[in-house]
């Protein structure tokens, strides 16, 4: 007998920000295969191990299928009606006792654009507060702030296709071979076809072995390194004077600052060689079409926004952004929809489309659509929410699809915040570390079970379509937000995800030309897209920059040291990041049999340090910082520089984020995950 043909559903990968198009094959409600889409605009028939194989979690027996409510200290299954009524009552009490700002929500980079739009609308319309943020706070908030200050808008400057025309790639603080594998492969392809490659990263990341120059700065010294490179560009005449005259401002101030960063001094601060630094500057400066790609190694620092701006300086000096050559400055976004969560206004200081709350016209536009005034006072950022909970000011916190107890820094303090807050609500797939501390847990749909759109790292909107029904009573976040609003007596309108995106476009002109119908027809469209009849803008700045004066702004921040330095007690510098087969807290990849390749978090150590510590490969180790303690397994590798250590945070039981500090970017409060002083000893 012949078996029925599988159902085929085209959707967008829910792991990293590359945004690969996938075809999901299902039969009888089960996934039989996930294939890369040959017409995918970014992946063109490719996908990495996560996109292809990390789908077993959807059928995990650990999936939450009923709402949970804490009674007598234990989470027990209850009906949706009871869970919603409990949360609505708790939120009403919080507002009655502390005003609207006593309630906050952490929205989700895992959720669709439409869900993020609805969540921020819920907080502003139903509760009356701007206390809404998303995990870009923990990764690329410095990119949004830095790129906006330098160029005018918060997105990467160019489409990825431009990189394929670049003749020099500068890859900084990123490990695309593991964290963005499809992009990593395409960058490598470009290099193998002749483009120059400069890698700046403390670790010997995968691309580094193909680099013309690999600079390995001490973690926390990026600003000095970028200034050293800029010094060489200026000193050797590798700048575009015409571009600078017509399109940039701030050159005299920067020239004065850069006098203090000759290669020898920059080398002394950063630990790279002066010769290497000069070689890198010449390669970038002499290229005709240089492109910059960077990751969290630039942003997750005490001076992350300064790092983004100092990096942007290089492209401006070279005339390699915007109306110049236009190969740009492009952040590699981590989570699948971290760009979209911010685009949709799940931010405490901005409405959809990055319209500042301080702009009365933007508030009036939103108020006209929503039918209520929009509060003007900026809300709390994620670290401030935790501080407010610890101090008793915040009385209700809704955490949507983020395991903050596993992934946020100084995790013991995060747990303390949740334990101090009278009402903690989670939307989750599994009983995560965070959900385990909640008062109410709503079971929700995964990315394979929902309808909407994501925005990938180069600003492309793409459709997300359900290949499966969610298990049991689990619902999409979109439905949960609607249901809670209704319980609080408010109809949020926009009944479908398509309606929500259309409504967002009425508030944010940069999305006005985007609809589900159009995306179904065209596949992918980048923003800005102000008109349904016009294509989206791949290159953000064709004629002028989007700053008020239309100019690119060179920045002159001095180098300042990181929040903490190694010393006699904590002699190693720990850097955290991802490994290729797992994803963030690992809640999905750990529950996928095909990916049980690592089963613990490993601590990469240089063999010289391991010898000194009496450690061999595979030994269990204790890692201690000034903030906490974790238990890991040693992996000896020369990928890590002497004096440094590296680990991921895919296994919450190892407690990696109890080690990381609460130092954060002075502009955006993005945590300094990339510099923690630690000591290591045998377990
Ligand atoms: Fe998914 Fe990223 Fe892998 Fe593409 S590269 S399949 S988007 S995890």
From TrEMBL:
Enzyme Commission no: 1.17.1.9
Domain 4Fe-4S Mo/W bis-MGD-type: 6-62
Top EC class, one word: oxidoreductase
Record flagged with keyword rRNA-binding: no
A molecular function (GO) term: formate dehydrogenase (NAD+) activity
Transmembrane stretches, start-end: none
Protein family membership: In the C-terminal section; belongs to the prokaryotic molybdopterin-containing oxidoreductase family.
Protein name per UniProt: Formate dehydrogenase subunit alpha
Source species of the chain: Sphaerisporangium dianthi
Gene that specifies this protein: fdhF
């Amino acid at each position: 007998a012949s078996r029925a043909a599988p159902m085929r559903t085209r959707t967008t990968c829910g792991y990293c920000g590359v945004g690969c198009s996938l075809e999901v094959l299902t039969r009888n409600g089960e996934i039989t295969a996930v294939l890369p889409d040959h017409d995918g605009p970014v992946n063109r028939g490719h996908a990495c191990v996560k996109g292809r194989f990390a789908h077993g979690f959807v059928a995990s027996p650990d999936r939450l299928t009923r709402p949970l409510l804490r009674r007598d200290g234990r989470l027990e299954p209850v009906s949706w009606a009871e869970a919603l009524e409990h949360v609505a009552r708790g939120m009403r009490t919080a507002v009655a006792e502390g005003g609207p700002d006593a309630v906050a929500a952490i929205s989700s980079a895992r959720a669709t654009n439409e869900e993020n739009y609805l969540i921020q609308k819920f907080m502003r319309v139903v509760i009356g507060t701007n206390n809404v943020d998303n995990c870009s706070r923990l990764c690329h908030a410095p990119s949004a702030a830095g790129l906006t200050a330098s160029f005018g808008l918060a997105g990467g400057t160019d489409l990825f296709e431009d990189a394929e025309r670049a003749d020099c790639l500068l890859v900084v603080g990123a490990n695309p071979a593991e964290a963005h594998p499809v992009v990593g492969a395409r960058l490598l392809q470009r290099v193998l076809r002749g483009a120059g490659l400069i890698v700046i990263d403390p670790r010997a990341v995968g691309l580094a072995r193909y680099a013309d120059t690999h600079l390995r700065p001490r973690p926390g010294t990026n600003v000095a390194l970028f200034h050293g490179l800029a010094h060489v560009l200026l000193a050797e005449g590798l700048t575009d004077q015409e571009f600078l005259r017509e399109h940039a401002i701030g050159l005299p101030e920067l020239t004065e600052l850069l006098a203090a960063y000759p290669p020898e001094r920059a080398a002394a601060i950063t630990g790279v060689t002066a010769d290497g630094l000069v070689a890198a500057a010449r390669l970038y400066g002499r290229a005709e079409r240089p492109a910059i790609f960077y990751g969290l190694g630039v942003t997750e620092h005490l001076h992350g926004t300064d790092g983004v701006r100092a990096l942007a300086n290089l492209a401006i000096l070279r005339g390699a952004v915007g109306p110049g050559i236009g190969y740009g400055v492009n952040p590699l976004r981590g989570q699948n929809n971290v760009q979209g969560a911010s685009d949709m206004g799940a931010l405490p200081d901005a409405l959809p489309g990055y319209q500042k709350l301080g702009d009365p016209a933007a508030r009036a536009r939103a108020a006209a659509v929503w039918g209520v005034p929009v509060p003007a006072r900026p809300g709390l950022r994620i670290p401030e929410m935790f501080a407010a909970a610890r101090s008793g000011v915040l009385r209700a916190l809704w955490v949507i699809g983020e395991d903050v107890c596993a992934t946020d820094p100084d995790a013991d303090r995060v747990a303390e915040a949740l334990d101090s807050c009278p009402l903690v609500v989670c939307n989750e797939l599994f009983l995560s570390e965070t959900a385990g501390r909640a008062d109410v847990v709503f079971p929700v749909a995964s990315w394979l079970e929902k309808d909407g759109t994501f925005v990938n790292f180069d600003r492309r909107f793409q459709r997300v379509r359900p290949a499966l029904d969610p298990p049991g009573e689990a619902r999409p976040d979109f439905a949960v937000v609607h249901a809670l609003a209704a319980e609080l007596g408010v109809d949020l309108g926009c009944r479908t995800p398509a309606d929500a995106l259309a409504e967002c476009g009425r508030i944010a002109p940069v999305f006005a030309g985007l609809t589900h119908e159009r995306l179904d027809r065209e596949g992918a469209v980048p923003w800005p897209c102000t008109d349904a009849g016009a294509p989206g803008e791949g290159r953000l700045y064709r004629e002028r920059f989007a700053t008020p004066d239309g100019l690119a702004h060179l920045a002159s921040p001095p180098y300042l040291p990181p929040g903490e330095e190694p010393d006699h007690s904590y002699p190693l510098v720990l850097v955290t990041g991802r490994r290729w087969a797992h994803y963030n807290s690992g809640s999905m990849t750990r529950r996928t049999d095909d990916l049980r390749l690592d089963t613990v978090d490993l601590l990469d150590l240089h063999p010289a340090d391991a010898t000194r510590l009496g450690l061999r490969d595979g030994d269990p180790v204790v890692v201690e910082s000034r903030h906490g303690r974790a238990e890991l397994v040693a992996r000896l590798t020369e990928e890590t520089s002497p004096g440094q250590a590296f680990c991921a945070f895919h296994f919450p039981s190892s407690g990696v984020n109890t080690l990381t500090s609460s130092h954060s970017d002075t502009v955006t409060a993005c945590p300094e995950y990339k510099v923690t002083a630690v000591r290591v000893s045998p377990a």
